[in-house]
């Protein structure tokens, strides 16, 4: 157990980070609500102030600030776990036959495919996510969803995760574009299962409710080589973790993915509910929640927080050891988030 003063210092610096970004609303282009779709900032109310930051080290030490117990739908972040399960069910070669790993450069809901390989570009766009969800094994839709939900619970170390039926029904009512994408894919033999069943499974996985704390725990499990710090449970193979993190790094942030990789430099996945899950391999997971979105559909505060954490702690995947504040001892040019080490109590 670390010294209380160390934990107080970390918590104080995390609170300062939170306060700096809480009052910054610049760059917000839209908000999203299931069933309602996107709407402009002038129509937003309490959601403008919803904001949480959670960090969890690979040894399970965790830190939360803000609305860290507010639940929100995973939406596109669920694509990470559907892809992980498809890899475990079929292996990388079979999955690569059905969905690629190239950044598309298009919006996440674009109905555009890799024409040369006859498959969606990657698992993090909607077409690719439909393909990976289609690959999830199970005797019937209920078993397939049960396996997906169980996997998410194991990543989070939280058996209380559930799919919100109201969110699911709202998404199902407004799923015309995803439905069109799925039928087009089936017409071109990119999907094999019943379209409506696969679409329902995809929308149900998107409706699983989490908190920023859950996101940080899921990210920490990925950072820990797919071993959950809370349970010691190995969730997937080491090879599978590498594949998942690689795709998150290059494709996880919609059509902002290239700039994210260039500037922030860690594997991540965002969702239109305002969540961002970011992984610092071997070190920690980050979960940020703030519903105000930029033009790409990423959380504005989430982007800024992750950028500041990455810069101040030298977490970019290509940072030198001299830049890496987590590898260095106490001191250094920035100590915005921590005391001598990023550690704290449970």
Notes on the protein architecture:
- With 346 residues, the chain is α+β, with helices and mostly antiparallel strands.
- It has a single domain, classed as Beta-lactamase, CATH 3.40.710.10.
- It is 42% helix and 11% strand.
- It contains twelve helices and ten strands.
- It has helices at 4-22, 78-90, 92-98, 126-135, 141-156, 165-173, 176-187, 195-206, 212-223, 238-251, 257-263, 300-313, and strands spanning 31-33, 37-39, 52-57, 62-66, 72-73, 162-163, 208-210, 268-270, 275-280, 284-289.
- The strands form three sheets. A five-stranded antiparallel sheet has the order 4-3-10-9-8. The protein has a three-stranded antiparallel sheet with strand order 5-7-6.
Give a brief rundown of this model.
Helix 2 crosses helix 3, helix 2 crosses helix 4 and helix 4 packs across helix 8. The C terminus is likely disordered. About 40% of the residues lie in helices and about 10% in strands.
Question: N- to C-terminal separation?
Answer: 9 Å
CATH topology: Beta-lactamase
Globally, the shape reads: globular
Question: What is the typical, i.e. mean, pLDDT?
Answer: 88
The largest sheet is: 5 strands, antiparallel
Tell me the radius of gyration.
19 Å
Strand order within the widest beta sheet: 4-3-10-9-8
Percent of sequence in beta strands: 5-15%
The number of helical elements comes to: 12
**Which structural class best describes the helix and strand composition?**
alpha+beta
Record field, number of beta strands: 10
The CATH architecture category equals 3-Layer(aba) Sandwich
* Oligomer classification: single chain
* Unreliable runs: 326-346
Q: Work out the helicity level.
A: 40-55%
| CATH homology-level superfamily | DD-peptidase/beta-lactamase superfamily
- Count of the domains: 1
């Amino acid at each position: 157990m670390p010294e209380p003063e160390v934990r107080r210092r970390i918590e104080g610096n995390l609170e300062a980070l939170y306060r700096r970004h809480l009052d910054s609303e610049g760059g917000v282009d839209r908000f999203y609500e299931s069933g309602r779709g996107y709407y402009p900032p002038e129509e937003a109310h309490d959601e403008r102030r919803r904001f949480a930051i959670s960090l969890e080290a690979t040894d399970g030490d965790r830190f939360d600030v803000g609305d860290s117990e507010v639940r929100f739908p995973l939406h596109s972040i669920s694509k990470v776990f559907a892809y992980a399960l498809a890899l475990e069910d079929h292996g990388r070669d079979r999955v690569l036959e059905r969905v690629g790993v190239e950044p598309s450069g298009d919006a996440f809901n674009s109905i555009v495919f890799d024409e040369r390989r006859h498959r969606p570009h990657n698992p993090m766009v909607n077409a690719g996510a439909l393909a990976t969800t289609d690959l999830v094994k199970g005797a019937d839709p209920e078993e397939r969803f049960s396996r997906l939900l169980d996997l998410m619970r194991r990543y989070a170390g939280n058996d209380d995760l559930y799919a919100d039926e109201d969110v699911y029904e709202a998404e199902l009512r407004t799923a015309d574009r995803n439905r069109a994408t799925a039928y087009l894919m089936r017409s071109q033999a990119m999907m094999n299962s019943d379209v409506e069943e696969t679409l329902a499974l995809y929308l149900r996985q998107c409706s699983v409710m989490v908190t920023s704390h859950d996101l940080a725990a899921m990210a920490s499990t990925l950072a820990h080589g797919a071993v959950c710090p809370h349970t010691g449970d190995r969730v997937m193979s080491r090879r599978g973790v590498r594949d998942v993190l690689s795709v998150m790094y290059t494709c996880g942030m919609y059509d902002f993915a290239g700039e994210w990789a260039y500037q922030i430099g860690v594997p991540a996945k965002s969702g239109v509910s305002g969540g961002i899950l970011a992984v610092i391999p071997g070190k920690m997971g980050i979960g940020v929640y703030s519903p105000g979105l930029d033009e790409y559909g990423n959380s504005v505060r989430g982007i800024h927080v992750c950028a500041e954490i990455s810069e101040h702690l030298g977490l970019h995947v290509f940072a030198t050891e001299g830049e890496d504040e987590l590898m260095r001892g106490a001191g250094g040019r920035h100590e915005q988030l921590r005391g001598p080490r990023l550690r704290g109590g449970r």
